[in-house]
From TrEMBL:
This is Uncharacterized protein.
Protein backbone atom coordinates (compact mmCIF):
# COMPACT_ATOMS: atom_id res chain seq x y z
CA UNK A 1 0.00 0.00 0.00
CA UNK A 2 1.29 3.44 -0.89
CA UNK A 3 0.23 6.19 1.50
CA UNK A 4 0.48 9.86 0.57
CA UNK A 5 0.36 12.47 3.31
CA UNK A 6 -0.50 16.09 2.66
CA UNK A 7 -0.45 18.70 5.43
CA UNK A 8 -1.24 22.39 5.78
CA UNK A 9 0.75 23.81 8.68
CA UNK A 10 -1.27 26.45 10.57
CA UNK A 11 0.97 27.09 13.59
CA UNK A 12 4.34 25.98 14.92
CA UNK A 13 6.18 27.06 18.05
CA UNK A 14 9.29 25.57 19.63
CA UNK A 15 11.33 26.25 22.74
CA UNK A 16 12.47 24.70 25.96
CA UNK A 17 10.34 22.30 27.93
CA UNK A 18 10.11 19.85 30.78
CA UNK A 19 8.57 16.41 31.08
CA UNK A 20 7.20 14.36 33.94
CA UNK A 21 5.59 10.96 33.59
CA UNK A 22 2.86 9.90 35.95
CA UNK A 23 1.55 6.47 36.73
CA UNK A 24 -1.39 5.32 34.63
CA UNK A 25 -3.77 2.38 34.62
CA UNK A 26 -2.02 0.67 31.67
CA UNK A 27 1.61 0.84 32.74
CA UNK A 28 4.16 2.24 35.16
CA UNK A 29 5.48 5.15 33.09
CA UNK A 30 6.72 6.80 36.26
CA UNK A 31 9.41 4.08 36.45
CA UNK A 32 11.07 5.41 33.28
CA UNK A 33 14.02 7.72 33.70
CA UNK A 34 14.03 10.87 31.58
CA UNK A 35 17.69 11.33 30.69
CA UNK A 36 17.41 14.65 28.84
CA UNK A 37 14.73 16.90 27.35
CA UNK A 38 16.02 18.39 24.11
CA UNK A 39 13.14 20.80 23.59
CA UNK A 40 9.43 21.12 23.12
CA UNK A 41 7.22 22.01 20.18
CA UNK A 42 3.57 22.74 19.43
CA UNK A 43 2.03 22.21 16.02
CA UNK A 44 -1.40 22.81 14.49
CA UNK A 45 -2.01 21.32 11.06
CA UNK A 46 -4.63 19.81 8.79
CA UNK A 47 -3.53 16.34 7.66
CA UNK A 48 -4.94 14.38 4.74
CA UNK A 49 -3.93 10.92 3.61
CA UNK A 50 -4.70 8.88 0.54
CA UNK A 51 -3.97 5.19 0.12
CA UNK A 52 -3.39 3.17 -3.01
CA UNK A 53 -3.00 -0.60 -3.29
CA UNK A 54 0.17 -1.33 -5.25
CA UNK A 55 0.54 -5.10 -4.79
CA UNK A 56 -0.75 -8.15 -2.96
CA UNK A 57 1.43 -10.04 -0.50
CA UNK A 58 1.15 -13.54 0.88
CA UNK A 59 -0.44 -13.19 4.36
CA UNK A 60 1.71 -15.97 5.86
CA UNK A 61 4.92 -14.30 4.66
CA UNK A 62 3.83 -10.88 5.94
CA UNK A 63 2.71 -12.02 9.39
CA UNK A 64 6.12 -11.55 11.13
CA UNK A 65 6.10 -7.88 10.05
CA UNK A 66 2.40 -7.14 10.64
CA UNK A 67 2.90 -5.56 14.06
CA UNK A 68 6.39 -4.16 13.56
CA UNK A 69 7.94 -7.11 15.37
CA UNK A 70 9.83 -8.57 12.44
CA UNK A 71 13.42 -9.64 12.52
CA UNK A 72 14.59 -6.09 13.23
CA UNK A 73 13.47 -2.77 14.64
CA UNK A 74 15.40 -1.09 11.82
CA UNK A 75 12.87 -0.82 9.01
CA UNK A 76 15.64 -0.04 6.49
CA UNK A 77 16.91 -3.60 6.99
CA UNK A 78 13.57 -4.83 5.65
CA UNK A 79 14.18 -3.10 2.29
CA UNK A 80 14.62 -5.88 -0.23
CA UNK A 81 14.06 -3.78 -3.36
CA UNK A 82 17.77 -3.14 -3.77
CA UNK A 83 18.69 -6.86 -3.49
Amino acid sequence: MRVTLDSDLAAYESGTGSLSLGEGPNGPLSDLEIAEVLGASYTEADLRTTQENVTTVDPESFLPYAFGAGRSNDWLELDNLSD
